[in-house]
């Protein structure tokens, strides 16, 4: 989070953005996990059999995952869009990026808590690591990088809003979600193992974060030159 350097002292309302982002996380997770997933499964079932869907899973999963990404990023950016609206629909790219990062931080914290609660509810302990090796830490590794993905994707939308290209960067953020989560499909189809998938996810998140930080520095330089 420190890499994004949000102006928390000069703009304390960013703390409210973080809090609302956190509050939206369980709502979003619940919607994605139950009604939306059920609706997509039902819609697919109207046209194809379970056997057909299994055979074509690599292709069939793409539209549903992209839809999940759109819904997820749509909820995540609500505090960002509200802040933009409150500012008369005028926000600098760097402030939009920082505001988006705060949305992602709040959302990511709550999602990480959700994930860790699930891990511990399965009976995880350090004994698992001692008995079965470092692979037992994969869930925590994944949670760390998904937290970074939450920051990067919403920060990307914020930068796009500041540039007047909201919908393009919204779609791009949904693509970030798609690329990361498509790895789980590849694992289920045994085209990747879990370790390979985790490294690919980490690489995707680092790439997205690098791009966002580069955009931040680029925007900061232009804003400084215009002063």
Features of this protein?
globular, mainly alpha, 227 residues, 82% helix, 9 helices
Poorly predicted ranges: none
Number of domains: 1
Q: What Rg, in angstroms, do the CA atoms define? A: 19 Å
Based on helices, strands and strand pairing, what is the structural class?
A: mainly alpha
Strand/helix succession: HHHHHHHHH
Helix content: over 70%
Biggest beta sheet attributes? none
Task: Describe the protein's architecture and organization.
The chain has nine helices and no strands. The protein has 227 residues and is an all-alpha fold. The chain has one domain (2-226). Helix 1 runs antiparallel to helix 3 (57-76) and helix 1 packs across helix 5 (93-121). The model has no long low-confidence stretch (mean pLDDT 89).
What's the SSE blueprint?
Layout: H1 13-47, H2 50-55, H3 57-76, H4 78-86, H5 93-121, H6 126-132, H7 138-162, H8 166-188, H9 194-226
Helix pairs in contact: 1-3, 1-4, 1-5, 3-8, 4-5, 5-7, 7-8, 7-9, 8-9
Task: Please outline what is shown here.
The chain has 227 residues and is mainly alpha-helical. The protein contains nine helices and no strands.
């Amino acid at each position: 989070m420190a890499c994004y350097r949000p102006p928390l002292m000069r703009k304390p309302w960013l703390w409210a953005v973080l809090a609302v982002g956190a509050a939206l996380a369980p709502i979003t997770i619940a919607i994605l996990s139950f009604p939306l997933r059920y609706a997509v499964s039902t819609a697919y079932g109207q046209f194809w059999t379970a056997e057909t869907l299994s055979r074509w899973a690599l292709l069939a999963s793409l539209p549903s995952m992209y839809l999940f990404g759109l819904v997820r990023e749509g909820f995540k950016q609500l505090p960002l869009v509200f802040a933009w609206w409150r500012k008369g629909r005028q926000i600098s790219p760097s402030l939009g990026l920082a505001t988006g990062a705060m949305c992602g931080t709040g959302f990511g914290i709550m999602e990480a808590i959700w994930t860790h609660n699930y891990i511990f509810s399965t009976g995880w302990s350090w004994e698992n690591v001692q008995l079965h090796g470092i692979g037992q830490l994969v869930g925590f590794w994944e949670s760390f990088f998904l937290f970074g993905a939450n920051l990067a994707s919403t920060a990307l939308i914020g930068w796009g809003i500041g540039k007047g290209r909201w919908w393009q960067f919204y779609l791009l953020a949904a693509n970030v979600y798609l690329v990361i989560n498509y790895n789980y499909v590849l694992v289920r189809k045994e085209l990747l193992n879990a370790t390979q998938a985790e490294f690919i996810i980490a690489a995707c998140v680092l790439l997205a974060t690098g791009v966002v930080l580069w955009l931040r520095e680029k925007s900061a330089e232009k804003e400084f030159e215009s002063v």
